[in-house]
Amino acid sequence: xxxxxxxxxxxxxxxxxxxxxxxxxxxxxxxxxxxxxxxxxxxxxxxxxxxxxxxxxxxxxxxxxxxxxxxxxxxxxxxxxxxxxxxxxxxxx
Length: 93
Description:
4 helices, 84% helix, single chain, 93 residues
């Protein structure tokens, strides 16, 4: 009986067990073939990287627009010019 238990755990591939755990983390079921599961895991990781890159790109877009708008306002200086004119009128300069 002891030899039967040892035989079950003897041919476990630690790399394949890691692949199975990572597949399950992504919500995918293992197929039983190490090569197929390894390629599916690589595809899932690539999709996740693309999704992260897309989200980072979407987050950065509004900041770029704000920087451009701020630069245009600084060039025009409409608020500062108006305030300076009001101060000149009030102070009689």
